[in-house]
Amino acid sequence: MRLVPQTLRENESLSSFIDHQAQLWGLSRSALTLQVSPIPALAVLKDLDACRSSKFLNDYATACGTDATELRARRVDYPPALIGQRARHAYCPLCFEEDLNRNGVPYFRVDWARMLLTHCAVHKCPLFRWHECTRDGLRKLPHAWFMGERAKPGELLWYNSDLKKAAAYAEGSRPRTAESTALWKTLVEFESTLYRTGVGSPWYRSRRNLDSLEDRIMRLAVKLVRPVDGYPERSLIKTIQPSYEDHDMLSFTLRRHRDRSMDPSWRELRGALTSLPCRRAVLLVVAQQLAQQPHS
Predict the structure, then answer these.
(1) Is the predicted pLDDT of residue 168 greater than 90, yes or no?
(2) Three-state SS for 189?
(3) Where are the beta strands (DSSP E) in the chain?
(4) Which residues contact 55 (CB under 8 A, 6 or more apart)?
(5) How much is the pTM?
(6) 240-261 CB burial, b ≥16 within 10 A, e <16
């Protein structure tokens, strides 16, 4: 199978790279990988972004004219730093608009899949959930974007809404209240510090021996969402989370967080804490509690 020629873009994830090809051929993610390199495909599909099969990457590079060395360099080497593969649907509308304005097809960045990052490091606006996803994790983009055109006005109403809200955060007109502004500032500063220092990075080479802080964050997050006496509604995060003006942006609700593990681990949270508003609430409280603890 001869694929369409491709070039990796800045911070693009391997799954985004492969999803683009799948959509050009009208295939699912799994169908494309099976056609390109059938023997390693089943193992590869467990986590495309952390692909350990050099054979698959070599086969894929040969099929689309890409440098296999580039593909190997882009795979993450610390998957626990990322949300579970099927939940990597976070995106920044402002980044997508910049991609479109450059006459390119928008793509998903590796950074957007980080567990400890819920805002865009470039625009300082919230990340949003991309709604068009398939069961195997492929994020479907409008066909018009692949043709170098804009989507029809009524096709992506939720995207237009996300774009408007992201722009409001980027320009500083949101949040509106002083209380929520202070909470948002605390969250962004916390996430930005972790990002700069390598805490929660999917790259071992960037972690800088900060595992102890990362472990503390993980333990606090697990403690916050753990049900009390078997009741999720009594979890610490439900009782101490701050009130934010826009619950669609930041709030922990059982409607969004449906996991019912009585004693969750960080591994389980990677597959359960998929809601961006819920994750923001957890990270905000973690930031507040760490700020109150003496530095070790």
Answers:
(1) yes
(2) helix
(3) 90-91, 128-129
(4) 37, 39, 40
(5) 0.94
(6) ebbebebeebbbbeeebbebee
Structure tokens at 226: 């753990």
Task: Look up tokens 């916390």; give the residue.
Answer: 190
- DSSP conformation letters of 46-76: T-GGG---HHHHHHHHHHHT--HHHHHHHS-
Residue 203 confidence (pLDDT): 87
Q: Are 251 and 244 in contact (CB under 8 A)?
A: yes
Can you read off the two tokens belonging to residue 129?
């959930």
SS3 202: coil
53: left (phi over 0), alpha (psi -120 to 50) or beta: beta
In the prediction, which pLDDT does 109 show?
98
Contacts of 34 (CB under 8 A, 6+ apart): 41
Tokens for 92? 């920044």
Neighbouring residues of 112: CB distance < 8 A, sequence distance ≥ 6: 88, 90, 91, 92, 120, 127
Kindly report, residue by residue over 51-80, the tens digit of the pLDDT.
989 999 999 999 999 999 999 999 999 999
Confidence of residue 152 (pLDDT cuts 50, 70, 90): confident
Q: What is the pLDDT of residues 226-242, one digit of tens each?
A: 999 889 899 999 999 99
Tokens of 286: 């973690």
Of 254, 291, 256, the C-alpha closest to 276 is 256
Q: How far is the C-alpha of 60 from the C-alpha of 38, rounded, in Å?
A: 11
Q: Nearest CA to 191 among 70, 92, 282?
A: 282
Domains of the chain: 1-75 (1.10.260), 178-292 (no CATH)
